[in-house]
């Protein structure tokens, strides 16, 4: 896929992933509102949502979800945004993902398996309550 993209387009895409990692919600939301695909995926299968969840940016997670980000997408390793948020113990992001319908049993490892493996009791309780 990257063979089809010019250097400027690749640089722009990398910048968008960096915005998700940094939690630059306003700038990323502006790009999404201007037409950036909300489910943009990098070469590892990470979506903007997975990156925002992994880097503990609940506001960015909410902004992406409100614009139609697919919470069920998994990266090339089978990880979902919910599992990433659980791993980081990001309560607000977990709540937002659950409220949008994210399945705690989806993915490999799933969010439930992640909470169990890392002994994240509060996260496991949140997933079971959610």
UniProtKB/TrEMBL annotation:
Name this polypeptide is given: Ankyrin repeat domain-containing protein
List the SMART domains: ANK
Q: Which InterPro entries match?
A: Ankyrin_rpt (IPR002110), Ankyrin_rpt-contain_sf (IPR036770)
Does this entry carry the keyword Transmembrane helix? no
Q: Where are the ANK repeats?
A: 44-76, 77-109
Q: Origin, by domain of life?
A: Bacteria
- Tell me one Pfam family matched here: Ank_2
Q: Does the keyword Lipoprotein apply?
A: no
Please provide the record's keywords in A-Z order. ANK repeat, Repeat
């Amino acid at each position: 896929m990257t063979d089809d993209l010019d250097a400027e387009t690749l640089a722009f895409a990398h910048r968008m992933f960096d915005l998700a990692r940094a939690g630059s919600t306003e700038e990323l939301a502006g790009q999404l509102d201007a037409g950036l695909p909300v489910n943009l995926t990098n070469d590892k299968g990470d979506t903007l949502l997975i990156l925002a969840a992994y880097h503990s940016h609940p506001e960015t997670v909410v902004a992406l979800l409100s614009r139609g980000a697919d919470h069920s997408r998994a990266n090339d390793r089978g990880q979902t945004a919910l599992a990433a948020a659980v791993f980081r113990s990001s309560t607000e992001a977990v709540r937002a993902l659950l409220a949008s319908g994210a399945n705690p049993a989806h993915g490999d490892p799933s969010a439930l398996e992640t909470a169990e493996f890392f002994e994240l009791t509060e996260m496991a309780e949140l997933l079971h309550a959610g």
